[in-house]
Specification:
mainly alpha
């Protein structure tokens, strides 16, 4: 009796497995069809990365502003919350740098060098993204797309402040 129910379960799981495999094959084919245009895919991926980094930069800048205001007007809980948010934004930056750090660590084991090179490369990435957004602003203003140009202007400004902070960190490391 138990063997019969076990066989029935295995057959059911096998059927479900086949259905999931079919769904997976269909999904893979749809993705392949959608991703035929590689340039469009790269643009989408870069936009997502830029907006994620932008939101983290805005969060960090806002938390610093709230921390200063809270300190000035003696808002105890506000200052503590701002410090937590600032620490979270800093931790996110470290998470963004992790792939670069991992790649650099393949070439050297010296922790100080790894940290320096990682920060430098991350600053170059952020700077290039900020410059790209700045160039897009000029193109959008030239073509009179004011809403998108204002969003890209914000991206450029946040990227510039982030690069400034990274350069200060690099200077401390050197």
């Amino acid at each position: 009796m138990k063997l019969g129910s076990l066989v029935s379960e295995i057959q059911l799981e096998s059927k479900l497995g086949d259905e999931f495999a079919d769904i997976g094959d269909e999904l893979a084919q749809e993705l392949k069809d959608e991703l035929e245009n590689q340039d469009e895919l790269n643009e989408v991926v870069m936009s997502i990365v830029a907006y994620v980094m932008l939101s983290n930069g805005i969060m960090g800048l806002t938390s610093k502003l709230v921390k200063r205001i809270s300190k000035k007007y003696n808002f105890g809980k506000g200052q503590a919350a701002a410090e937590k948010i600032e620490a979270f934004a800093k931790a996110n930056d470290d998470r963004f740098m992790y792939p670069i750090r991992k790649a650099v660590s393949l070439f050297t084991k010296d922790e100080a060098k790894i940290k320096k090179v990682t920060h430098i490369l991350f600053a170059v990435v952020v700077l290039s993204m900020a410059l790209n957004a700045g160039m897009e602003v000029f193109d959008l203003i030239k073509n009179s797309d004011f809403m998108q140009s204002s969003v890209n202007s914000l991206r450029t400004a946040v990227g510039g402040t982030k690069v400034h902070a990274l350069v200060r960190t690099i200077a401390k490391l050197l």
